[in-house]
Amino acid sequence: MITIRELTDxxxxxxxxxxxxxxxxRADLNIGPDFKPDFKRVLKDCRNWCKSRNATTFAxxxxxxxxxxxxxxxxINNEEKTARIGxxxxxxxxxxxxxxxxxxxxxxxxxxxxxxxxxxTIAEDNLNSKxxxxxxxxxxxxxxxxxxxxxxxxxxxxxxL
Length: 161
Known about the structure:
The protein is α+β, with helices and mostly antiparallel strands. It has a single domain, classed as Gcn5-related N-acetyltransferase (GNAT) (Aminopeptidase, 3-Layer(aba) Sandwich), CATH 3.40.630.30. It has helices at about 10-20, 25-30, 40-50, 100-110, 125-135; strands spanning about 1-5, 55-60, 65-75, 80-90, 115-125, 140-145, 145-155. The protein has a seven-stranded mixed β-sheet with strand order 1-2-3-4-5-7-6, sandwiched between helices. Helix 4 links the parallel strand 4 and strand 5. Helix 1 crosses helix 3. The longest helix has 15 residues, at about 100-110. The two termini are about 15 Å apart. The model has no long low-confidence stretch (mean pLDDT about 95).
């Protein structure tokens, strides 16, 4: 079982470790060899990123309190009731359903915030991410330069997933 929560200091410690040591994650996020953030840097960068993108970032946490990734609602537009979803899961925790579960939870959060449409841009070769959107009723609205734009309409039925 997983939960999502706003980032705590302990989450930032675990995220910092993954960002420094998880070579799969570092490659996926295109992190250079010299970037080794401590937990204070993770918290600062997250706050700055959220502020600049009108976003909320959540830690993806297992029932044993292990933080396995991050998921966010960004580019929140209250007038249009839209937001972008972004996420990553550490290399050791992939293909176990954690990202799908976190996705369902963040869709519920979005609906609670009054957001009616979610979107993301996904690389055409990122089959796992595309499958997450497909399972939740997302659909492709366009593609360009090897990336597909996905949308998902939030409804009250997502509150019961």
